[in-house]
Amino acid sequence: MQFTLSTTLLIAAIFFLAAFTRATVGFGDALLAMPLLSLVAGVRVAAPLFALVSLVYTAVFLSKSWRDIQFRAAGHLILASACGIPLGLWLVNVAPERLILGLLGVLLILFGLYNLFTPSLPTLRHPWLIYLFGFISGILSGAYNTNGPPIVMYGILSRWTPDQFRATLQAYFLPVGLLTAIGHAAAGMWSVNLFQLAAIATPMALLALYSGRKLHHHIPAALFGRLVYLFLVVIGIFLLW
Q1: How far apart (Å, rounded) are the C-alpha atoms in residues 152 and 137?
Q2: Coil, helix or strand at residue 99
């Protein structure tokens, strides 16, 4: 499928906004970009395109913040997600997209509102729950590249600091994104035109990454937490729209 210049520029602008969001709060780029890219290019282009471009800026992001990674947690989450990705790749072909994303939207709204008005959430005390969060995230990754929310919830309930939160999310997103991209390739979703779009969108995403990181350093830790919860609510509403 060939795209006009205006459509190509619109896709690049979507990636700028998505990468800026990732750099500022640590997640949310897929939830923001996937619905918009799907409207512009269709899901079968949007999913592999986002997977390719996000791999680049996630690697750059991680190279700057690897010291704050919770390596043990990231490893368990990645392992569980790897088991869920094949199910997600199958699910995207059989389940209504609106149903899955709608349920995810409701979950995000409820979780975000609960955190905003009830800050005394319990700390996770059952080690096996990390595999449940990771598996669900893998399913969402394989289906719609929306693997962030379960990992965000796990990080919040595990009481990660803002720096640990952002760094560990990137350590998780990179290998899971790579597995997802490999799955797209195996499913025949890669094309020459896809790589052309990725080559145009990637510089815009890297520019946004630099700008967002600068902004993040000026956000206090307490405010950062509330911004994350509020952002979850906004994304949830967006998914229900």
Answers
A1: 10
A2: helix
Rounded to whole angstroms, what are the CA distances from 210 to 28, 58, 160, 182, 238?
Answer: 17, 12, 23, 27, 26
Sign of torsion over alpha carbons 222, 228, 231, 232: negative
Domain count, the chain: 1
How many whole angstroms separate alpha carbon 182 and alpha carbon 85? 11
What is the reported pLDDT for 121?
61
What is the CB neighbour count within 10 angstroms for residue 205?
A: 27
Domain membership of residue 10 as a residue range: 5-240
Q: What is the 3-state secondary structure (H, E, C) of 127-159?
A: CCHHHHHHHHHHHHHHHHCCCHHHHHHHHHHCC
Burial class (CB in 10 A: 0-12, 13-18, 19+), 204: buried
- Dump pLDDT digits (tens) for 160-217: 887 888 888 889 989 888 888 898 898 888 999 999 999 999 999 999 988 887 776 6
9: left (phi over 0), alpha (psi -120 to 50) or beta: alpha
pTM value is 0.75
Which residues have a Cβ under 8 Å from the Cβ of 173 and sit 6 or more positions away?
27, 54, 58, 147, 148
Q: How far is CA 58 from CA 83, 100, 106, 226, 229, in A?
A: 21, 25, 27, 23, 22
pLDDT tens column, 89-111: 887 777 776 777 777 778 778 87
CA nearest to 79, candidates 125, 27, 135:
135
